[in-house]
Design goal:
454 residues, alpha+beta, five-stranded antiparallel sheet, 19 strands, binds flavin-adenine dinucleotide
Length: 454
């Protein structure tokens, strides 16, 4: 029996019979079609406390949803109580102290708009409709991380509701063990209602955008890229994309539908120095389009939005690799040439820079020494063709297996406990398990990339 004091609950309670049930049970990845028992759309911290208590009393599985962008679809489950934070949209930027207080339902683009009003930024991800909450709790990689670190590297504190329904704060000075754990350990220790970040002085412009070559030239492009990027200063971040060029307004029409390899740059710093560094890339071979120019940071942050709309079917498998060796480049080219769906695209992330300068033990996040992160993803409009694309992802990922180094927890699918352990490494995983025993000994928060208590 699900009893809630609805007079005291300021948010919205959504049950299967409610007209808005279908809208609220949906998440970004259309391949998940879950039917929870109840969705508790919390409007304030007291609602989250009440929702946790109700979840406990119900004995049903509990899931936590903020931006709804979990690759593994774990923010909604059948017959579960969904604790939905998406109504909690408060953002307060203090331009003098250069901090931002951000509630759990805020999306990346919503945060960027507030910080950019003051020429500030919080490092985050590359698609504006992703949730700040889930992204930050796993680490948070994005366009400015090589200069300014991960999202967690600018995190000052969190307010968190524990499995007992207690509200606690975690920071470097308060519950420091918990603060270590939430910086990479995901939703294992409780529900974060508020994040406090330091903001970095970014300005409002970046030198950014993609250069395109025909995909047949991918081998040469990647070999050139590998040596060019080896000397890159932290101001530069790049992502490589292989795909059929999308029919978007900023892509030249003669390229639409043609297989291409893109190197997308984002330079945060002096644009003249950026131009100088990027010049050899512009001059390599004959790019069929060069859209790298000075533009508003907000524009660049939104660049990928049209390629990843909610509702399509997506499947991902990810791995970190130390380097782009000749063998890895060959595997990459071979599989990229086999991309079938016009919607499939996969990023290869350059890593390092400021991310690698933070001590490995300082946070639970475990990918600081990665060289490149592959997030091999496939996409279709719906069920049709999905199985075939998923097989392509699995084959490609398997072909890279000899060089796998680790995996970013936020890029994991529902892949089982060994993969979660792999993403943290044994030592950190053991430490996280001990922390879980302290803060959630009954594994109440378990529909997630789960770290069971030791
Ligand atoms: C289109 C797209 C682009 C992405 N780009 C990036 C990127 O650039 N960089 C990057 O680092 N990652 C990226 N990701 C991965 C992303 O970080 C994770 O999917 C993340 O979990 C999304 O957070 P969310 O709040 O939107 O998701 P949700 O589905 O709402 O939550 C995912 C999980 O996080 C936990 N969680 C969520 N909110 C809370 C909370 N308030 N308290 C405690 N636990 C919580 C829960 O365990 C939940 O199951 C991307 C994902 C997508 C789909």
């Amino acid at each position: 029996m699900l009893e809630l004091d609805e007079a005291a609950f300021r948010g919205q309670v959504v049950r299967p019979e409610d007209p808005s049930y279908d809208a609220h049970r949906k998440i970004w990845n259309g391949s998940f079609d879950k039917h929870p028992a109840m969705i508790l759309r919390c409007a304030r911290v007291a609602d989250v406390v009440a929702a946790v208590k109700l979840g406990r009393a119900s004995g049903l599985p509990v899931t936590v949803r903020s931006g709804g962008h979990s690759f593994s679809g774990l923010s909604v489950a059948d017959d579960a109580v969904v604790i939905d934070l998406s109504l909690m949209k408060g953002v307060r930027v203090d331009p003098d102290r250069r901090t931002a207080r951000v509630q759990a339902g805020v999306l990346l683009g919503e945060l960027d708009k507030e910080t950019q009003a003051f020429g500030l930024a919080v490092p985050s991800g590359i698609v504006t409709h992703t949730g700040v909450a889930g992204l930050t709790l796993g680490g948070g990689i994005g366009w400015i991380m090589r200069k300014h670190g991960l999202s967690i590297d600018q995190l000052v504190s969190v307010d968190l509701v524990t499995a007992d329904g207690e509200l606690v704060r975690a920071s470097a000075d308060e519950n420091a063990d918990l603060f270590w754990g939430v910086r990479g350990g995901g939703g294992n220790f409780g529900i974060v209602t508020d994040f406090e970040f330091r903001c970095v002085p970014l300005g409002t412009q970046v030198l950014a955008g993609p250069l395109f070559w025909p995909m047949e030239q991918s081998g040469e492009v990647l070999r050139f890229y590998r040596s060019w990027v080896a000397d890159a200063p932290d101001e530069l971040m790049t992502i490589i994309i292989h795909r059929k060029a999308p029919p978007l307004s900023f892509v030249p029409t003669d390229l639409h539908g043609k297989p291409v390899v893109m190197v997308i740059c984002c330079w945060v710093g002096d644009p003249e120095q950026g131009e100088k560094f990027i010049r050899p890339l512009r001059g390599f071979g004959s790019p069929v389009a060069d859209l790298c120019s000075q533009k508003p940071y907000l524009t660049h942050q939104a660049m990928f939005d049209p390629s990843f709309p909610p509702g399509r079917w997506y499947y991902y498998k990810s791995c970190d690799l130390a380097e782009l060796s000749d063998e890895i480049i060959d595997v990459t080219v071979e599989h990229s040439m086999r991309i079938d769906s016009p919607l499939t695209s996969f990023p290869i992330w350059q890593t390092g820079g400021a991310v690698a300068q933070v001590g490995d033990d300082e946070t639970a996040f475990n990918g600081r020494s990665a060289g490149f992160t592959y997030n091999i993803g496939a996409c279709t409009e719906g069920r049709e063709g999905f199985d075939q694309e998923r097989e392509w992802v699995r084959d490609f990922w398997k072909a890279l297996e000899p060089w796998h180094e680790g995996v970013y927890v936020n890029f994991l699918g529902d892949e089982g406990s060994e993969r979660v352990r792999q993403s943290y490494g044994h030592a950190k995983y053991d430490r996280l398990q001990a922390l879980k025993r302290k803060y959630d000994p009954n594994n109440f928060f378990r529909t997630n990339q789960n770290i069971p208590p030791s």
